[in-house]
Amino acid sequence: MTITLPSISLLPYLPEIVLLITALLVLVIDTFAGEKRWLVWLALLGTIVAGVTTWSLSLGPTLYLQDMLAADPYALFIDMVVLIITAISLLLAYDWLNSHAHQQGEYVALLLFSAVGMMTMGAATNVITIFVALEILSLSLYVLTGFARERLTSGEAALKYFLLGAFASAFFLYGVALLYGATGHFDLVGIGKNMAGTGLMAAAGVALLLVGFSFKVALAPFHMWTPDVYQGAPTSVTAFMSVGAKAAGFAAFLRFFHVALAGSYATWGPALAALAVLTMTWGNLAALNQESVKRMLAYSSIAHAGYALVGLAAGNALGMSGLLFYLLAYAFMNLGAFGVIIMLEKKGSGDLSMSALRGTAREHPLLAATMAVFMFSLAGVPPLAGFFGKFYVFGAAVKANMTWLAIVGIINSAISAYYYLRVSVLMYMVEPDENTTDVATNNRPVLAFALLVALVFVIGIGLWPGIWMQMAQQAAALLG
Amino acid sequence: MIPLSWYLVVGALLFVIGFYGALSRRNAIAILMSIELMLNAVNINFLAFWRYLTPKEMAGQVFAIIAITVAAAEAAVGLALVIAVYRSRDTVSVDEVDLLKG
Questions:
Q1: Domains in chain B, ordered, with CATH?
Q2: pLDDT in tens, A24-66
Q3: Mutate to test the interface with A, among B14, B35, B101 (most CBs of A within 10 A)
Q4: With contact defined as beta carbons under 8 Å apart, do A119 and A84 qualify?
Q5: Is A62 helix (H, G, I), strand (E, B) or coil?
Q6: Which residue of A131, A163, A355, B75 is 20 to 30 Å from A211, comparing CA positions?
Q7: Partner residue opposite B102 with nearest CB, options A174, A180, A295
Q8: How far apart, in Å, are the Cα atoms of A215 and each of A136, A166, A170, A307?
């Protein structure tokens, strides 16, 4: 028996490799560096280099590594979104890391490892790669969640996240096994070709995969971990995972449904639509009376997963590009909102209560205005990024003859306006309490810069949505 | 030769036992063990499908090995988190780890 070695071309994987090398460098330098502050800047440099690599690697759509990964416009778009998220998350964590100097290297390295997992998920064209990438991103996030060792809630959040995440992975894996049994393939194209005529086993496999995916992107009724984990994790980690894990999860989710299950849209379209309705309604209703801002944003992120799912449930080209646009817009507005929380939260508390927001506009007018923009954008007020995200995904639903879904989405947006505007009302129209004046905002230029970047993009995407939508449309070309 | 369906039934039974354990146990380590049981139940399925459906291709076997590796990494991270929680709270019961709720 002769064994021929396959030709291995790692060139299209270069952006991820750059990030991996940066992460390893950070770990090595961390062991003997006296001044750890530079590690964040090194990681940021690695992220930028990876971004430039992504941009300049115009290899044309190609499959590589035994067709396990794709370098198509779609994967490149997800790469860029993840890299932007990583860069802003590094800046958001900068001040917090300086008070946790002995852990700085691990934090930065784990963040980069997680980003590699996210980017790989966007490129994966085989359920094996999707699974491995999902685990790379999840395992790093479990540890990051428990990083604030001085707070009991952080460890608790990490434990809960881990147990439910691993539980979901088991479902995902079982789904993969059943799909393999039904079709004899692991690659999405092979599954798609052999899907016709498969019976109950394939359906059960898809259902189990859907459960696994739903856990990861926090769709109701598999979202139970989200509020606890988002509240307990260090806020910079919450910001990163709320947008990063969601973008990566939806990226793989969409590729799976559009490539492997393209022929059976009639079955999964309505199912996903029902899931979207359940998710956004549940998330919005639960967010209405939360006392912790982080917990409120956790439920809001569940609702946003529901809106994004509308784009997938629509199943058409507009839905696909709308979803990509949504992920991008959501990344900036949510990172920004969490950035403001980091700015306002008391040192070591890792959380911010609604009542602590009272009257903050008086002392911090700029910060309050920034938060108001992010809240308006999350609520979907034009002309901000969040409005056009919703506009495109709901438009896709109408185009797919699911007008009822778009109407439910719009009603939900109206409900959500209540709790987003409540933040602004508390900041602007309520007198500050005696005991809430200890909200700490000292001079933090790095954090302020990250907020500024997020703010510019939220407004920029809102003012010129056409440019970004065009990018998303070009990216919505999947390589089978 | 033992028919394929027998392996699948064993796999499904093990998965359900693990599922039950993960939901009913209160000890975090017992939950972790139950999850490992679920993952290994899936490995039985992978190997059975590989042997009966596509014995010429390695993919099924390789995926089982990858799943084992991932399960090992998961156990390492999970046990580390359990130890971290135990050190700060002196308990690994998920009922008593309940600061976050609402």
A1: 4-89 (1.10.287.3510)
A2: 999 999 988 778 888 999 999 999 999 999 888 766 788 888 8
A3: B35
A4: no
A5: strand
A6: B75
A7: A295
A8: 16, 10, 11, 16
